[in-house]
């Protein structure tokens, strides 16, 4: 269920000749992305840069730049001179994005697992507990959020900026598409895979981490015509 609307504070920043600072663009980008992932903006819903600029207390320039970044990662789509809207990610597109994510995250593990610290293990343990609670209560938004947070702990460890950007980009498609599948995936299987990966992180066992990823790859993504 979508979270209640939260009050939006205006973003105060300096502008030079109408060009937004990157910090403002990033802030607007993150707020719009959060609204998409939390269900306040739904797939197919039209987005007005003018309305968003008024809501955030900024000019249209940083909003347009933020929307362009969102188009680049695939969660917003636009038709010239017609509309900008939240992307409609089909089940098949979600499944295809999962294949890409699995390949990229598998490449990440060889670097990340040996770098895991006790603080990372503690954070992942809490994320896994939160995920299990969300699954038990079938809170779909929380399931998606806690799962995303769990895996992002390892993504943050890589020094490969290109790999981090690629994973971050594709995971947003997976996260958005997973909320609108014709039926739920096997959350229990995903929970077991998380547990295996957590043990791998705790023991810095790269082979066990790859076993966890293989289990995730085997989880079926339900399609429209199965």
TrEMBL record:
Q: What is this protein called?
A: GntR family transcriptional regulator
The record's section on InterPro entries has:
AsnC-type_HTH_dom, GntR_C, TF_FadR/GntR_C, Tscrpt_reg_HTH_GntR, WH-like_DNA-bd_sf, WH_DNA-bd_sf
In terms of superkingdom, the source organism counts as Bacteria
Q: Which UniProt keywords apply?
A: DNA-binding, Transcription, Transcription regulation
Keyword Transcription found: yes
Fetch the PANTHER family from UniProt. GLUCONATE OPERON TRANSCRIPTIONAL REPRESSOR, TRANSCRIPTIONAL REGULATOR, GNTR FAMILY
**Record-linked Pfam families:** FCD, GntR
UniProt keyword Transcription regulation present:
yes
Q: Which organism is it from?
A: Terrimesophilobacter mesophilus
Q: Name one GO molecular function term.
A: sequence-specific DNA binding
